[in-house]
Amino acid sequence: MLLTGRLCLLRLHSPIPCPFLPFLYSRRIFLHTIPAAKSQLKPSATETKISQPSSSQFESIRPSLFVPPGLERDDVTVDMVLPWSNIVVGPYAGDAQVNQVEFIKSSVKMKDCPRDQFPEFAVIGRSNVGKSSLINRLVKRKEIALTSKNPGKTQLINHFLINKSWYIVDLPGYGFATASKSARMDWFSFTKGFFLNRDTLVGVLLLIDATVPLQKIDLDCANWLGRNNIGMTLVFTKCDKIKGGKGTRPDANIRAFQDLLKQFYKEPLPWIMTSSLTGLSRDDLLLHMSQLRNYWDI
Ligand SMILES: Nc1nc2c(ncn2[C@@H]2O[C@H](COP(=O)(O)OP(=O)(O)OP(=O)(O)O)[C@@H](O)[C@H]2O)c(=O)[nH]1
Ligand SMILES: [Mg+2]
């Protein structure tokens, strides 16, 4: 049963060309602008009203939405879409609270990882993208996962047990510029093994720094996961940072990434904008994870 659920879910992400309409960006990003750090981040009731698309506009958004299991795309209404994302909330969403978190262990190799069959989400991305910070924010603990300004802080596979029933896994970052070539190769051989053999993996949160221009290594990673039918959610980090004047803005980066990925996927990948500094999308990301987890658990 578990496996059937998982395979169906993963099939949603199979990499086949598809049309993609990024209209949702217009609604969520261009009308609201990227939020400033420590400001009120969720759109206010007035803003939501202003930005509510007309029914014809919503029809053009519809094809770019991530529709979870248990829902038909035609049945989605605008209020089912999570803010700052293309994610629709479906019937499997629920149980999104984090009541308890426990660091279980650090493992050097996959064979040392916990074997208790709880569903798990792997958090991956380039060094310094904010993986450990996001985990701390999700579980509302300041330093349960160790963070650092210097890339390469997380070196092991760290399992955090949530509510005694599912795991978040903090993995070492890739693309650490000053790491030796052999260390970088090791990262790939190690993680490939983890993703292909870990049968409790519900999905991957692929973190992408929204404040730096598109990185080939992130695209390569997304495509590798897609080719191997591993379900992923694109989590754009550091969306509190506005680069005024020159420099790349988060919205432009997110659009560029989506534009490139859309050629490879039959169905739109779920994406969400976050900030661990301000808590943007914390609850919504947990809700999304709950629907993936609950479906996997059928
Ligand atoms: N402004 C801002 N800074 C962030 C955010 N998330 C993380 N950072 C900062 O980015 C740096 C790296 O964060 P980490 O969470 O350690 O990154 P990581 O991906 O776990 O890094 P490695 O373990 O080295 O792979 C730290 O200085 C964080 O404070 C965010 O949402 N906004
Ligand atoms: Mg880390």
From TrEMBL:
<dbReference type="GO" id="GO:0046872">
    <property type="term" value="F:metal ion binding"/>
</dbReference>
<feature type="domain" description="EngB-type G">
    <location>
        <begin position="117"/>
        <end position="295"/>
    </location>
</feature>
<keyword id="KW-0479">Metal-binding</keyword>
<keyword id="KW-0342">GTP-binding</keyword>
<dbReference type="InterPro" id="IPR027417">
    <property type="entry name" value="P-loop_NTPase"/>
</dbReference>
<dbReference type="GO" id="GO:0005525">
    <property type="term" value="F:GTP binding"/>
</dbReference>
<comment type="similarity">
    <text>Belongs to the TRAFAC class TrmE-Era-EngA-EngB-Septin-like GTPase superfamily. EngB GTPase family.</text>
</comment>
<dbReference type="InterPro" id="IPR030393">
    <property type="entry name" value="G_ENGB_dom"/>
</dbReference>
<dbReference type="Pfam" id="PF01926">
    <property type="entry name" value="MMR_HSR1"/>
</dbReference>
<dbReference type="InterPro" id="IPR006073">
    <property type="entry name" value="GTP-bd"/>
</dbReference>
<keyword id="KW-0547">Nucleotide-binding</keyword>
<protein>
    <submittedName>
        <fullName>GTP-binding protein</fullName>
    </submittedName>
</protein>
<dbReference type="InterPro" id="IPR019987">
    <property type="entry name" value="GTP-bd_ribosome_bio_YsxC"/>
</dbReference>
<keyword id="KW-0460">Magnesium</keyword>
